[in-house]
Amino acid sequence: MAGGDGIRTPATFPPLQKARIPRGSFHEKSLEQQKKGPSSSSLSVSSNNSPLQMATQVVQPQKSLESPQHMVTPVGLSESLGSRSTPCSSGSVGSDSGAAPFDICKKRDNKCSFKLSRSLLEINREKRREMEQFSKEIYLRPGMVLLKKFLKHDDQVDIITRCQKLGVGSGGFYTPGYRDGAKLSLQMMCLGKNWDPNSRSYGDTRPFDEAQPPSIPEVFRKIVKDAMQASNDFLKKKGGDVEELPPLSPDICLVNFYTISGKLGLHQDKDETKPSFDKGLPVVSFSLGDTAEFLYGDTSNVDKASKVDLESGDVLIFGGKSRLIFHGVSRIKPNTAPNWLTDKAELRPGRLNLTFRQH
Ligand SMILES: O=C(O)CCC(=O)C(=O)O
């Protein structure tokens, strides 16, 4: 494990409240706490007039056929980020041992086929509308590219279906929880290698049940490769001194399922190896289901972070100069998943996120 101390960890930490978590874990600190600073215990966030705010606008596809606009905005101080601590890949010191495996999909019929609650005609109409919004690349900053709507519809359904099946099996989703029994409203599963939130290190099995993480499906690797290719083609076209990113051969995938109250505090992904960082090997992130407000910046200061929406089908890549950016999820926007997806894949309300890395 490279990166020394602050692996996937914010730079500063508030006093522990409920959980007895090893000091320094980024799970300790909610976004709210990060905004307020280590000494604050208040839950509300007030002003939106911070001189530290930086506003950036880039192009984003809209729901209509008109000229697409994508907003990348600073994190407004007026935004209430709630008091929950960071979920999922944040904050686990235990598991839900004995509990039924978490199913990211709603109930299916006995034959395991999907029940459609809306007519195929309606679903196809919505799919056509979405396809007309063509995919698009957005340059967020050096080393950081967002591929809007990159994941094909069938691939999105396939990814959810595979994660659902893996998630209810051995090494599947579990509820990260605190030692005192407090639970977080987010589920996590690792593929390839296990990432242990307590030691912030990778291993072959997970400490609490010795389960081996399932392997990364080959189809997922192929999509990662295609996304890297698309990103580099885009960067090449951009020209100038824009850096292309080195190819990633992922051996780790963290799968997070955020419920609609899920969040993830600003942190860096620093648990991979030094050679991986030295080469600037990127993190490739798939978003499915409800939209996430994603924060990113050079420090763990939420007020200085920029914000971009990650919608279902989006692929975010950050490597090279952006490999160690601070990033997190400030909120999940309820009811924003495309209807065709929730109908077909029967995904629960919330968001599925897969981040691929190379150890
Ligand atoms: O959900 C996301 O988009 C980010 C996930 C993440 O930062 C992580 O798993 O380390």
TrEMBL record:
UniProt biased composition (Basic and acidic residues): 25-35
GO terms assigned for molecular function: broad specificity oxidative DNA demethylase activity; ferrous iron binding; oxidative RNA demethylase activity
Cofactor note: Binds 1 Fe(2+) ion per subunit.
Binding site residues for Fe cation: 267, 269, 327
Region (Disordered): 1-97
Record GO biological process: oxidative RNA demethylation
InterPro entries, alphabetized: Alkb, AlkB-like, AlkB-like_sf, Oxoglu/Fe-dep_dioxygenase_dom
Biased composition (Low complexity): 38-52, 80-97
Signal peptide (residue range): none
Cofactor(s), by name: Fe(2+)
UniProt KW keywords: Dioxygenase, Iron, Metal-binding, Oxidoreductase
GO cellular component, one term: cytoplasm
Compositionally skewed regions (Polar residues) per UniProt: 53-67
Residue ranges constituting the Fe2OG dioxygenase domain according to the UniProt record: 249-359
Similarity remark: Belongs to the alkB family.
Cross-referenced PANTHER family: ALKYLATED DNA REPAIR PROTEIN ALKB-RELATED (PTHR16557), NUCLEIC ACID DIOXYGENASE ALKBH1 (PTHR16557:SF2)
Listed name of the protein: Fe2OG dioxygenase domain-containing protein
Species, as recorded: Leersia perrieri
